[in-house]
Design goal:
Distance between the termini of chain A: 39 Å
Helix content of chain B: 25-40%
CATH architecture of chain B: 2-Layer Sandwich
Number of domains of chain B: 1
Radius of gyration of chain A: 14 Å
CATH class of chain A: Alpha Beta
Structural class of chain A: alpha/beta
Order of helices and strands of chain A: EEHEHEHEH
Number of domains of chain A: 1
Strand order of the largest sheet of chain A: 1-2-3-4-5
Largest interface: A-B, 23 and 25 residues
Oligomer: heterodimer
Largest sheet of chain A: 5 strands, mixed
Distance between the termini of chain B: 38 Å
Number of helices of chain A: 4
CATH class of chain B: Alpha Beta
Shape of chain B: globular
Largest sheet of chain B: 5 strands, antiparallel
Strand order of the largest sheet of chain B: 1-2-3-5-4
CATH superfamily of chain A: STAS domain
Strand content of chain B: 25-35%
Shape of chain A: globular
Order of helices and strands of chain B: HEHHEEHHEE
Number of strands of chain B: 5
Structural class of chain B: alpha+beta
Strand content of chain A: 25-35%
CATH superfamily of chain B: Histidine kinase-like ATPase, C-terminal domain
Radius of gyration of chain B: 20 Å
Chain lengths: ~130, ~160
């Protein structure tokens, strides 16, 4: 079963999630995402929720887990000079519906990652991030 | 005479219809395997479909059930032992009661476990908001637990719009 589509553009990993995102699915796809982060020297991630029909709190764990992986990856590549800067700023989430927005708010994730309406605005914001570094 | 009898019958039927209680229940027992999370969600939503819930109401229930079953798998049975999870769903008029029970390790301190953002398993990428989600999407959530005997989560919700 296909759960995700992954593509990479200018060190930005774009993860398109599909269907139901629960504990079972999150466990299956996180390794695939991590493998891509490692091999492609990813600096930022965009999670696209357009095709997600259902999500429980496992989806929150999936996103916050990837922040840690991105942190670890940057540290090992010496990209981060200041350890106090988290990678959460390099994570963008697009196409959230009302229900998913509620989940993000309950978890507090809305305070640390950025939400955008579409792929283009997320891409340009993440690129701007890089240039101002 | 005949006419009035007929009328009485009619009003009796009407009265019965009005007072008729919808009472129904289902019990599902599954192994604590993560692929069963989606099965239980789908089964419960099919069972309560007769109440004509709105899409939002249905998703509220599916999310809460998913959290409870996931908890039973990763906390109750600690993600390694395969045990049984019993899910009971009762319908009484426009109210549903869902009970999710495991015979696993039990919870030491229920209040701490229910604290938003608290997780006993941070290494497993758990966000610690399972109970918060259940409380957000259901009307009432009660947790009963006994060390080494298991945990029972009882959730209720009333449907309004479709009913």
């Amino acid at each position: 079963m296909v759960f995700i589509q992954i593509s990479i553009s200018q060190k930005i990993l774009i993860v398109k999630l599909e269907n139901d995102l629960d504990h079972h699915v999150a466990n299956e796809i996180k390794d695939e995402i991590d493998r891509q982060i490692m091999t492609s020297k990813t600096e930022s991630i965009i999670f696209d929720f357009e095709k997600v029909k259902f999500m429980d709190s496992s989806g929150i764990g999936l996103i916050s887990g990837r922040i840690s992986v991105l942190d670890a990856q940057k540290e090992s590549n010496n990209i981060i000079k200041n350890k106090n800067i988290s990678s959460s700023n390099d994570i963008a989430i697009i196409n959230l519906d009302k229900r998913l927005t509620t989940m993000m708010r309950i978890s507090g994730l809305d305070k640390i990652v950025n939400f955008f309406d579409d792929l283009e605005s997320a891409m340009s914001a993440l690129r701007k991030n890089k240039h101002s570094d | 005479m005949q006419e009035s009898k007929k009328n009485n019958e009619k009003s009796d039927i009407k009265k019965n219809k009005k007072n008729k209680k919808i009472i129904n229940s289902v019990v599902i027992a599954v192994d604590s395997i993560s692929s069963n999370e989606s099965f239980v969600r789908v089964a419960i939503s099919a069972f309560i479909a007769s109440l004509n819930p709105t899409v939002d109401e249905l998703n509220d229930v599916k999310t809460a059930v998913s959290e409870a079953v996931t908890n039973a798998i990763i906390h109750g049975y600690e993600d390694r032992d395969i045990g049984k999870i019993f899910i009971t769903c009762k319908i009484k008029n426009n109210e549903i009661t869902i009970e999710v029970r495991d015979c696993g390790t039990g919870i030491d301190d229920i209040a701490t476990a229910m604290t938003p953002m608290y997780t006993s398993k941070p290494d497993q990428e758990r966000s610690g908001i399972g109970f918060t989600v259940m409380e957000t999407f259901m009307d009432k959530v009660v947790v009963k637990s006994q060390k080494n005997l298991g945990t029972k989560i009882i959730m209720t919700k009333k449907f309004f719009t479709g009913y």
